[in-house]
Each structure stands twice: as structure tokens, then as C-alpha cells.
Amino acid sequence: MLKKSVLFFVLFLSACGWHLQNGALIPQELHTLAFESSDPYSEMSMAMRRQLQANNVNLVNAEQGVPVLRINKQITNDEVSSIFKRGREAEKTLMLEVEATVRLANGQSYPINAKVNRTFFDNSRAALAKAAERDVIWNDMREQAARQLITKMVALQHQLKEK
């Protein structure tokens, strides 16, 4: 009975168009900011831009008096986690680390970073399908890292109030 009522409640909320309010937790000082990256058209930059826009952050060109979010470094790595009996790679751990800086209008900078790890089962018999699956996983990891960076921006609110 409880499962049916929970299912009904979820279906009701999704059918009426109700959704969580995006951008409500981002500090007011960061609702308008400039976004910088060494490669503005990289997959990570595009994922970050999408997440900022989804959270109602107004992106503007860098100018005096506007906070700046800059992606400083993106590190990707994959390590073998397990192997098959014959010595071929069976499973890999994909790792993504993103380092960024939020520079406020008053010149203060706050470093933020995000780390995402995923496991990937690598079957060499289905190489083409696994390559496509791997690309999907990397894209999902970038989106998750971008969401983590925005969460860290929300956490800056306590530091902004102290100053």
C-alpha cells in the first residue's frame, strides 16, 4: 500500500509539472558572472555552461565588477581495476578532476574543485559499442563535475556572508 501511495504521489507531481526550483541556493552575488576557460569549446566548458544556465545564472562577458568562474585545470585518467584470466583488461576506473576558481568583484578568489570516479567494464569483443558507452560515461561525468562545482559555489555563501 505504501509503495502504491508513493508511486501515485510521484506520478502526480510529475504530471502537474512541479519541479525543484533551480538556482534558488546560489548566492545573489553569483547570479551574474563571467565564465572563463582555456578552451571555451571543450566538453567540460560546455557542460559547465549548461549547468550554470540550468541554475538561472546569467552569463556575461568579463568586465570590471563582475564575478568570474574560471576552469583552471581538467585532469582525466583511467586505471585498470581488474583483468580477465587471460590477462586482458576487464574493468577500468575512469577519473575526472576539475579545478576552478571563483573570483569575486572585490578581487577575492576562492578555489573550488570536483572529483568524479566511475567504473567501466571494457569488453574487447564489443569494442565499438564500448567506445560509445565510454563517451557517454565521460559526458555524464563532466555533467556531474559541473553540478559539484555549482554545489561548491553554493557553499561559498557562508564565506561571502562572513566578509
Helix content: 25-40%
For the largest sheet, list the strands in their spatial order: 2-1-3-4-5
Uncertain segments: none
The CATH homologous superfamily is named: Lipoprotein like domain
How would you characterize the largest beta sheet? 5 strands, mixed
CATH architecture type = 2-Layer Sandwich
* Number of H- or I-type helical stretches: 3
Radius of gyration, whole Å: 20 Å
- Beta-strand percent range: 25-35%
Brief overview:
The chain has about 160 residues and is α/β, with parallel strands linked by helices. The protein contains 3 helices and 5 strands.
Task: Tell me what the structure shows.
The protein is α/β, with parallel strands linked by helices. It has one domain (about 25-160): Lipoprotein like domain (Double Stranded RNA Binding Domain), CATH 3.30.160.150. Helix content is about 40%, strand content about 35%. The protein contains three helices and five strands. Strands 2-1-3-4-5 form a five-stranded mixed beta sheet, with helices on one face. Helix 2 (about 45-55) crosses helix 3. The longest helix has about 35 residues, at about 125-160. The termini are far apart.
